[in-house]
C-alpha cells in the first residue's frame, strides 16, 4: 500500500529525519520503521492476516509502535484507553476474542515471518466509540476510508513534510491516531505527551519546534488559561471532538497569531464531515462549518445525514449518528445535540449542547455541562453544572443571563457551581460521571 511504501522510502532515503518523540524516547524515520517492521515480522509468525489484536499499553508511544507494527503485519488493531477498567477490558476481550493481546507484560515471539503488504480495502482498525449508551461499540475501519482523505486534510489544515505535530493523550482516541498517520503520510514529525499540565505541553512545543497543534477544545481552554505570551511559530491549530466555544476561539487567534486555525466536526462512524476555518470560526461560531470536499449533508426529520467516501465500511454509503441539526442558507451546519441526549421537559425538547454554547458566551463562565435529571412532574428538568472563571459570579447572575439568552423552557431549573468537570480519556466532558456525581454526591455541591 502506498502509505507504508512512502514511509519506507523516507526511512531509506532520509533515515535521520525525526519521526516521533515522547519524553526522552526519540525515533528517526529509519529507527521507527526498523522497530515497527521487526514487530510486524514477529507478529506475522502468530496466526494469520486479519487476526484481531487487542493493544492495551499505558505508554502512548509504545501503543503507537505496536499498532503500526500490527498494521504492517495485516492485523486488525483495537486500541484500549489506558484508563479502561478491568470490567470493561474483560468484557471487550470476551466480545472481540482477539488472537493476540498486547499488554505491558507482552513479549514478542522469537520467530519471524514475511510481512504481507496491506491493501487499502483491508480492515486495519476497530475504533472504540461509547456512543449514547455508555457501552463500548467497535467501528471497523479500512485503510481507504482514512488515507484517501489525507490529501484533503493536508490542504485544509495546512500540513506538509516540514510539519511537526503536537498530540496529547492516547491513540485509542481515533482523532489522535488519524492525525498521527496523516502527518507521517506527509513525512512530518510527531511530538507526544500524556502529561496533563499545560506547562509541560508548552515546554515540549518549544523544545521540538512544534508548528502544528491538535487538541480537543477542553485542552485548548487549559492552555489559554496558562499562556501569558503568544506562540508565534505555530502555523496550524486544529481542534475537534467537541464544539469550540466563542471565547476560546477568540483566545486562539491571540495566542497563535500566525496560525491557520481550523475546527472540524466528525464522528467515529463518519470520519470528517464539516470544517470551519479563519474568520468564520468567529463569525459563525455556533456552526461546525461547511462540508468537507466529497461529503454530502442533508437533514431528514431533524437528523443530520451524511454521504461520504470516508464513512466506515459497515455504514456506507450514507449514515447518521443521531446528531440533530440544521443548515443555513450559506451551507453552514449547526448542531443542536444528539438524539439520545435530548432533554424532555414536559414534552418540550431541549438540546444540552445549545444551552452549553450559550452559557459559555458568559465571560464569567469557564466551562459548563448541561444534563437532564428526573422530575416527577415534568419528566425531566435541566441541570447546569458550571465552572467559574470569575469567582464573583452568582447563581442569580447566571439566571439573569439565561433569561436574556435562552427560551423559557431551555433555562436550567438547577444550577450548580463545581470546581471542575470530569473529562474522559479523549478529553471530552464525561456526562455519565457528571450524572453519577449529581445522583450520589448532590449534598457536596453548592447550589
Automatic annotation (TrEMBL):
Domain AMP-binding enzyme C-terminal: 355-428
GO MF terms, alphabetically ordered: medium-chain fatty acid-CoA ligase activity
Presence of the UniProt keyword Nucleotidyltransferase in the record: no
InterPro entries according to UniProt: AMP-bd_C (IPR025110), AMP-bd_C_sf (IPR045851), AMP-dep_synth/lig_dom (IPR000873), ANL_N_sf (IPR042099)
Listed Pfam families: AMP-binding, AMP-binding_C
One record GO biological process: fatty acid metabolic process
Record carries keyword Ligase: yes
Keywords of the record: Ligase
Domain AMP-dependent synthetase/ligase: 11-103, 113-315
Annotated family: Belongs to the ATP-dependent AMP-binding enzyme family.
Record-linked PANTHER family: ACYL-COA SYNTHETASE, MEDIUM-CHAIN ACYL-COA LIGASE ACSF2, MITOCHONDRIAL
Protein known as: Long-chain acyl-CoA synthetase
Organism: Caldanaerobius fijiensis DSM 17918
Amino acid at each position: 500500500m502506498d502509505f507504508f511504501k512512502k514511509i519506507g522510502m523516507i526511512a531509506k532515503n532520509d533515515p535521520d529525519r525525526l519521526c516521533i518523540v515522547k519524553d526522552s524516547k526519540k525515533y528517526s524515520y529509519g529507527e521507527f520503521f526498523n522497530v515497527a517492521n521487526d514487530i510486524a515480522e514477529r507478529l506475522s509468525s502468530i496466526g494469520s492476516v486479519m487476526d484481531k489484536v487487542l493493544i492495551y499499553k499505558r505508554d502512548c508511544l509504545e501503543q503507537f509502535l505496536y499498532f503500526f507494527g500490527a498494521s504492517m503485519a495485516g492485523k486488525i488493531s483495537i486500541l484500549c484507553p489506558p484508563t479502561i477498567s478491568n470490567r470493561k477490558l474483560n468484557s471487550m476481550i470476551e466480545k472481540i476474542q482477539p488472537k493476540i493481546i498486547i499488554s505491558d507484560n507482552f513479549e514478542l515471539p522469537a520467530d519471524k515471518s514475511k510481512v504481507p503488504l496491506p491493501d487499502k480495502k483491508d480492515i486495519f482498525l476497530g475504533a472504540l466509540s461509547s456512543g449514547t449508551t455508555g457501552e463500548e461499540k467497535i467501528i471497523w475501519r479500512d485503510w481507504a476510508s482514512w488515507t484517501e482523505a489525507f490529501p484533503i486534510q493536508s490542504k485544509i489544515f495546512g500540513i506538509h513534510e516540514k510539519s511537526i505535530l503536537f498530540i496529547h493523550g492516547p491513540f485509542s482516541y481515533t482523532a489522535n491516531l488519524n492525525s498521527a498517520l496523516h502527518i507521517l503520510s506527509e513525512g512530518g514529525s510527531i511530538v507526544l505527551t500524556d502529561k496533563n499540565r499545560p506547562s509541560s505541553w508548552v515546554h515540549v512545543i518549544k523544545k521540538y519546534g512544534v508548528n502544528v497543534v491538535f487538541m480537543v477544545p477542553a485542552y485548548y481552554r487549559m492552555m489559554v488559561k496558562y499562556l501569558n505570551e503568544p506562540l508565534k511559530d505555530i502555523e496550524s491549530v486544529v481542534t475537534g471532538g467537541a464544539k469550540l466555544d466563542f471565547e476560546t476561539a477568540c483566545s486562539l487567534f491571540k495566542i497563535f497569531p500566525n496560525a491557520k486555525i481550523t475546527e472540524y466536526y466528525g464522528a467515529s462512524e463518519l470520519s470528517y464531515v464539516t470544517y470551519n476555518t479563519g474568520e468564520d470560526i468567529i463569525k459563525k461560531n455556533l456552526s461546525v462549518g461547511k462540508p468537507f470536499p466529497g461529503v454530502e449533508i442533508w437533514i431528514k426529520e431533524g437528523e443530520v445525514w451524511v454521504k461520504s467516501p470516508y464513512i466506515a465500511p459497515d455504514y456506507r454509503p450514507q449514515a447518521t449518528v443521531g446528531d440533530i441539526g440544521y443548515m443555513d442558507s450559506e451551507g453552514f451546519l449547526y448542531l443542536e445535540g444528539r438524539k439520545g441526549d435530548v432533554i424532555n421537559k414536559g414534552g418540550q425538547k431541549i438540546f444540552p449542547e445549545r444551552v452549553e454554547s450559550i452559557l459559555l458566551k458568559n465571560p464569567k463562565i469557564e466551562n459548563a455541562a448541561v444534563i437532564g435529571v428526573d422530575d416527577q412532574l415534568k419528566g425531566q428538568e435541566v441541570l447546569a453544572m458550571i465552572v467559574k472563571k470569575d469567582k464573583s459570579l452568582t447563581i442569580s447572575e447566571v439566571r439573569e443571563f439565561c433569561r436574556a439568552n435562552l427560551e423559557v423552557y431551555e433555562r436550567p431549573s438547577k444550577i450548580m457551581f463545581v470546581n471542575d468537570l470530569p473529562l474522559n480519556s479523549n478529553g471530552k466532558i464525561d456526562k455519565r460521571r457528571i450524572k453519577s456525581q449529581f445522583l450520589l454526591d448532590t449534598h457536596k455541591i453548592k447550589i
